[in-house]
Amino acid sequence: MTKRIAGYGLIAACMLPIFAMAQEVTLSGKTSSTITATVVPRDNFDVTDEKGGWFDSGLEMKQLGGWDAPYEVEARLRVLSTSGMFQVRLDTPLEIRNQADTQRMFQRPSVTLAPDGGQPKSIVTGQGTTFSNPVPPVAGEDSVGYYTLAVAAYPPAGDFKATAGTYSGVLSLTFEPTIKTR
Predict the structure, then answer these.
(1) How many C-beta atoms lie closer than 10 Å to residue 143's C-beta?
(2) Does residue 133 sit within a domain?
(3) What's the confidence (pLDDT) of residue 139?
(4) What distance in Å separates the CA atoms of residue 101 and residue 116, rounded to the nearest whole number?
(5) CB neighbours (10 Å) of residue 39?
(6) Are 82 and 43 in contact (CB under 8 A)?
(7) Strand extents, DSSP E, 26-66
(8) Which of 31, 37, 143, 152 could, after both became Cys, cross-link 72 (CB 3.0–4.6 A)?
(9) Does any domain span residue 9?
(10) Which domain holds residue 140?
(11) d(CA 150, CA 143)
(12) In what order do the strands lie in the sheet with 129-132?
Protein backbone atom coordinates (compact mmCIF):
# COMPACT_ATOMS: atom_id res chain seq x y z
CA MET A 1 0.00 0.00 0.00
CA THR A 2 2.82 2.38 0.85
CA LYS A 3 4.46 1.60 -2.47
CA ARG A 4 1.22 2.29 -4.29
CA ILE A 5 0.78 5.69 -2.60
CA ALA A 6 4.38 6.62 -3.42
CA GLY A 7 3.79 5.57 -7.05
CA TYR A 8 0.63 7.72 -7.32
CA GLY A 9 2.52 10.62 -5.73
CA LEU A 10 5.28 10.25 -8.30
CA ILE A 11 2.75 10.23 -11.18
CA ALA A 12 1.04 13.32 -9.78
CA ALA A 13 4.38 15.12 -9.38
CA CYS A 14 5.27 14.39 -13.00
CA MET A 15 1.98 15.84 -14.23
CA LEU A 16 2.33 19.12 -12.32
CA PRO A 17 4.45 20.81 -15.01
CA ILE A 18 1.76 19.98 -17.59
CA PHE A 19 -0.86 21.72 -15.51
CA ALA A 20 1.46 24.64 -14.79
CA MET A 21 2.32 25.13 -18.47
CA ALA A 22 -1.31 25.20 -19.48
CA GLN A 23 -1.92 28.42 -17.56
CA GLU A 24 -2.34 31.69 -19.43
CA VAL A 25 0.09 34.47 -18.46
CA THR A 26 -0.57 38.15 -19.17
CA LEU A 27 2.50 40.32 -19.69
CA SER A 28 2.48 43.98 -18.91
CA GLY A 29 5.02 46.77 -19.33
CA LYS A 30 7.58 47.09 -22.12
CA THR A 31 7.45 44.09 -24.43
CA SER A 32 9.71 45.22 -27.32
CA SER A 33 13.07 46.93 -27.75
CA THR A 34 14.85 48.79 -30.51
CA ILE A 35 18.52 47.95 -30.96
CA THR A 36 20.74 50.30 -32.93
CA ALA A 37 24.14 49.10 -34.17
CA THR A 38 26.96 51.04 -35.76
CA VAL A 39 29.49 49.34 -38.01
CA VAL A 40 32.92 50.90 -37.76
CA PRO A 41 35.09 50.09 -40.78
CA ARG A 42 38.44 48.47 -40.14
CA ASP A 43 41.61 50.46 -40.57
CA ASN A 44 43.16 49.84 -43.98
CA PHE A 45 46.83 49.87 -44.86
CA ASP A 46 48.05 48.60 -48.20
CA VAL A 47 51.31 49.14 -50.11
CA THR A 48 51.43 48.23 -53.81
CA ASP A 49 53.07 49.36 -57.00
CA GLU A 50 51.29 52.28 -58.65
CA LYS A 51 48.91 49.94 -60.50
CA GLY A 52 47.84 47.95 -57.43
CA GLY A 53 50.18 44.97 -58.01
CA TRP A 54 53.76 44.24 -57.03
CA PHE A 55 57.21 43.82 -58.57
CA ASP A 56 57.05 40.06 -59.16
CA SER A 57 60.12 40.01 -61.40
CA GLY A 58 62.18 42.25 -59.09
CA LEU A 59 63.82 45.57 -59.89
CA GLU A 60 66.83 45.91 -62.20
CA MET A 61 69.49 48.48 -61.32
CA LYS A 62 71.28 50.33 -64.13
CA GLN A 63 74.42 52.43 -64.28
CA LEU A 64 73.43 55.47 -66.31
CA GLY A 65 76.57 57.55 -65.74
CA GLY A 66 80.25 56.73 -66.10
CA TRP A 67 82.25 53.95 -64.41
CA ASP A 68 82.28 55.83 -61.09
CA ALA A 69 78.50 56.47 -61.09
CA PRO A 70 76.18 54.41 -58.91
CA TYR A 71 73.78 51.79 -60.20
CA GLU A 72 70.23 52.99 -59.59
CA VAL A 73 66.60 51.98 -59.80
CA GLU A 74 63.34 53.74 -58.96
CA ALA A 75 59.91 52.28 -58.29
CA ARG A 76 56.64 54.09 -57.81
CA LEU A 77 54.57 52.94 -54.81
CA ARG A 78 50.93 53.52 -53.87
CA VAL A 79 50.12 53.65 -50.14
CA LEU A 80 46.49 53.42 -49.01
CA SER A 81 46.02 54.27 -45.33
CA THR A 82 43.08 54.95 -43.03
CA SER A 83 45.17 56.98 -40.57
CA GLY A 84 47.17 58.67 -43.34
CA MET A 85 50.42 58.23 -41.43
CA PHE A 86 52.97 55.42 -41.64
CA GLN A 87 56.62 54.66 -41.07
CA VAL A 88 59.14 52.69 -43.11
CA ARG A 89 62.37 50.98 -42.10
CA LEU A 90 64.93 48.60 -43.57
CA ASP A 91 64.76 45.20 -41.87
CA THR A 92 68.38 44.35 -42.70
CA PRO A 93 71.15 46.30 -44.41
CA LEU A 94 70.93 46.04 -48.20
CA GLU A 95 73.67 43.77 -49.57
CA ILE A 96 74.02 43.33 -53.33
CA ARG A 97 76.42 40.43 -53.91
CA ASN A 98 78.02 38.74 -56.91
CA GLN A 99 76.25 35.39 -57.35
CA ALA A 100 79.48 33.57 -58.31
CA ASP A 101 81.79 35.29 -55.77
CA THR A 102 79.85 36.40 -52.68
CA GLN A 103 82.88 38.33 -51.38
CA ARG A 104 82.29 40.91 -54.12
CA MET A 105 79.49 43.28 -53.26
CA PHE A 106 78.19 46.73 -54.13
CA GLN A 107 79.34 49.60 -51.94
CA ARG A 108 77.47 52.35 -50.06
CA PRO A 109 73.93 51.21 -50.85
CA SER A 110 71.24 53.79 -50.13
CA VAL A 111 67.46 53.56 -50.01
CA THR A 112 65.18 56.60 -50.08
CA LEU A 113 61.45 57.19 -50.28
CA ALA A 114 59.97 60.45 -51.54
CA PRO A 115 56.33 61.54 -51.64
CA ASP A 116 55.12 62.96 -54.96
CA GLY A 117 56.51 66.48 -55.18
CA GLY A 118 58.43 66.07 -51.92
CA GLN A 119 61.99 65.56 -50.79
CA PRO A 120 63.41 62.03 -50.47
CA LYS A 121 63.98 60.68 -46.97
CA SER A 122 66.62 58.06 -46.17
CA ILE A 123 65.35 54.65 -45.09
CA VAL A 124 67.72 52.98 -42.66
CA THR A 125 67.95 49.72 -40.74
CA GLY A 126 65.98 49.50 -37.52
CA GLN A 127 64.80 53.12 -37.45
CA GLY A 128 61.38 54.11 -38.76
CA THR A 129 61.06 57.13 -41.03
CA THR A 130 57.61 58.76 -40.86
CA PHE A 131 55.50 59.76 -43.86
CA SER A 132 52.04 61.33 -44.24
CA ASN A 133 49.64 60.71 -47.09
CA PRO A 134 47.71 63.63 -48.56
CA VAL A 135 44.37 64.41 -46.91
CA PRO A 136 41.58 62.41 -48.60
CA PRO A 137 39.18 64.42 -50.80
CA VAL A 138 36.19 63.22 -48.74
CA ALA A 139 36.32 63.20 -44.93
CA GLY A 140 36.19 59.69 -43.49
CA GLU A 141 37.67 57.99 -46.55
CA ASP A 142 41.10 56.35 -46.74
CA SER A 143 43.97 58.48 -47.99
CA VAL A 144 46.09 57.47 -50.97
CA GLY A 145 49.64 58.67 -51.48
CA TYR A 146 52.17 58.00 -54.24
CA TYR A 147 55.86 57.68 -53.45
CA THR A 148 59.10 57.05 -55.30
CA LEU A 149 61.33 54.34 -53.84
CA ALA A 150 64.92 54.84 -54.99
CA VAL A 151 67.80 52.42 -54.50
CA ALA A 152 71.39 53.27 -55.41
CA ALA A 153 74.75 51.56 -54.84
CA TYR A 154 78.27 51.90 -56.21
CA PRO A 155 79.92 48.99 -58.02
CA PRO A 156 82.53 46.89 -56.22
CA ALA A 157 86.11 48.12 -56.18
CA GLY A 158 88.29 46.83 -58.99
CA ASP A 159 88.41 46.87 -62.76
CA PHE A 160 85.51 45.85 -64.97
CA LYS A 161 86.94 42.41 -65.74
CA ALA A 162 87.40 41.54 -62.06
CA THR A 163 83.98 42.77 -60.97
CA ALA A 164 81.85 41.59 -63.92
CA GLY A 165 79.04 39.18 -63.18
CA THR A 166 75.48 38.91 -62.00
CA TYR A 167 74.67 40.60 -58.72
CA SER A 168 71.55 40.29 -56.62
CA GLY A 169 70.24 41.31 -53.24
CA VAL A 170 67.10 41.40 -51.14
CA LEU A 171 65.54 44.71 -50.19
CA SER A 172 63.46 44.00 -47.08
CA LEU A 173 61.35 46.95 -45.95
CA THR A 174 58.68 47.17 -43.27
CA PHE A 175 55.82 49.60 -43.79
CA GLU A 176 53.60 50.07 -40.74
CA PRO A 177 50.72 52.41 -40.03
CA THR A 178 51.04 54.90 -37.20
CA ILE A 179 48.41 56.79 -35.28
CA LYS A 180 48.05 60.52 -34.96
CA THR A 181 48.84 61.92 -31.53
CA ARG A 182 47.12 65.00 -30.23
Answers:
(1) 18
(2) yes
(3) 87
(4) 38
(5) 5
(6) yes
(7) 45-49, 62-63
(8) 152
(9) no
(10) 45-177
(11) 22
(12) 129-132, 85-90, 173-177
Total domain count, the chain: 1
- Tell me which DSSP letter residue 88 carries: E
- Tell me whether residue 84 is exposed, middle or buried, using C-beta atoms within 10 angstroms of its C-beta: 0 to 12, 13 to 18, 19 or more: buried
Among candidate residues 58, 28, 67, the one with its CA nearest the CA of residue 157:
67
Give the closest residue to 88 by CA, choosing from 173, 170, 148: 173
Q: Residue 34 domain-assigned?
A: no
pTM greater than 0.85 (yes/no): no
The predicted structure's pLDDT at residue 8: 53
Residue 33: inside a domain, yes or no? no
Beta bridge partner(s), residue 148: 76, 114
Contact (Cβ atoms closer than 8 angstroms) between residue 127 and residue 89: yes
CATH number of residue 99's parent domain: 2.60.40.2040
Per-residue pLDDT of the chain (182 residues; tens, 9 = 90+): 555 554 555 555 555 555 555 677 777 777 788 888 887 778 899 999 999 999 988 999 999 888 889 999 999 999 999 999 999 999 999 999 999 999 999 999 999 999 999 999 999 999 999 999 999 989 889 999 999 999 999 999 888 888 889 999 999 999 999 976 65
Cα separation, 182 vs 176, in Å, equals 19
